[in-house]
Write a structure and sequence with these properties.
Radius of gyration: 27 Å
Number of helices: 6
Largest sheet: 4 strands, mixed
Strand order of the largest sheet: 2-1-3-4
Shape: elongated
């Protein structure tokens, strides 16, 4: 920064101090919201686990059990529910999900159902067909919206509009670690191991398949809601980490600017003394 006046350096210091205040405030807000998001994850997981064990137990009641939700199709029509954030400033949170969807579904005839403003913007910009923008704001989606969405997905799947359904989200591992993931929703995959682990014995009316087909939309709603909870917590954790790094960088820049300011002021004082002595 040779030749920069002390006035310019002071203006940059004030600018960096303002930036530091903003990033620190955003970090504190994200930390506060993150605790509530983690509680939502812990509350949603038991519901998902109970539903999954129930449908696995129903499928285990008969060895020749069949359901349209379990039948794999030869078609290549794919729907992907892509969950991202409504805002940026969260490191690679949004871009990692988009990159995963592009890689996994490359070469397939796929549509997306975007959740989150960033998801809508990305797939619009890349010319990917969008099923609906009804769920464009992730912050406004409630658990009832997830169940409404899942019932419509189950209806469209049975009608043959899609051959496969996936959900792409970010899995919350810890505050410092989040990983993008893509989970297949339909057709449902119940492995033989899972079927063997269950203990059939309950009676289902009118029959196991009718109960199974009725539970699937509820199961899908629970998975979508769980993925949304994981994504929200991941976004907050990523934003907290990014804002913490930005605050530390601002502190470092302010320290360097203060050092340059002191050097420039010392140089100006030395020059004035030299001019006075020379004039005398």
């Amino acid at each position: 920064m040779a030749g920069v006046s002390t006035k310019d350096i002071k203006q940059r210091i004030r600018s960096m101090e303002s930036t530091r205040q903003i990033t620190r405030a955003m970090e504190m807000v994200a930390s506060s919201k993150l605790r509530r998001a983690q509680e939502r994850i812990n509350d949603s997981r038991p519901y998902f686990e109970i539903l999954y064990s129930t449908i696995a137990r129903i499928a285990a009641t008969k060895t020749d059990f069949t359901s349209p939700y379990l039948t794999r199709r030869e078609g290549n029509k794919v729907l992907c529910i892509a969950i991202a954030g409504d805002r940026g400033l969260a490191g690679g949170y949004n871009s990692n999900v988009f990159k995963l969807v592009t890689q996994e579904l490359s070469g397939k005839d796929f549509q997306v159902l975007p959740i989150g403003k960033k998801s809508v913007e990305y797939f619009k910009a890349h010319g990917v067909p969008i099923l609906t923008e009804q769920y464009a704001e992730a912050a406004d989606i409630s658990i009832s919206d997830c169940f409404t969405l899942s019932k419509q997905l189950a209806k469209d799947y049975l009608a043959g509009k899609f051959d496969q359904v996936y959900v792409a989200f970010t899995n919350f591992i810890s505050v410092l670690s989040q990983s993008p993931a893509m989970l297949p929703l339909l057709p449902l995959s119940l492995t033989q191991t899972k079927r063997a682990e269950t203990e059939p014995g309950a009676l289902y009316e009118p029959d196991p398949q009718s109960v199974f087909d009725a539970i699937i939309p509820e199961y899908l709603g629970g998975v979508v809601y769980g993925a949304l909870c994981e994504s929200v917590a991941s976004e907050l954790a990523a934003r907290r980490t990014a804002m913490d790094a930005a605050t530390k960088n601002a502190d470092e820049m302010i320290e360097n600017l203060n050092l340059q300011f002191n050097r420039a002021r010392q140089g100006a004082i030395t020059q004035e003394i030299t001019e006075i002595v020379a004039g005398a």
